[in-house]
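Appendix B. One record, verbatim.
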Amino acid sequence: MREVIATEQAPKAIGPYSQAIRAAGLIFTSGQVAIDPATQQVVAGDVSAQTERVLKNVDAILREAGSGLEKVVRCTVFLKNMGDFAAMNEVYGRYFKQAPPARSTVEVARLPKDVQVEIDAIAVG
């Protein structure tokens, strides 16, 4: 079984994908960028502000699925500039305080809407 997860508390998909899919007891979120769901616009600010918005979006999607950040087992972080790692990591650490999930962080040439960070997650449903 495969179930599409969608919420108005996170940005609408900007392409042919779902905000998340529930399958095999897990929630797989699509990569989230720093779009404010109220305006559908990229939030202003540095990588810290963008990471904050991204993680709020991921959390909203997971909550819609009956899960949450505390149930995340894996994240992938895509950074436009690895020089922003420390700033991103500081914000990320506030959202994953205890038993943080496994994670990979990679630098990429470009991200959708020219944002500075994108994060996807896999969580227990």
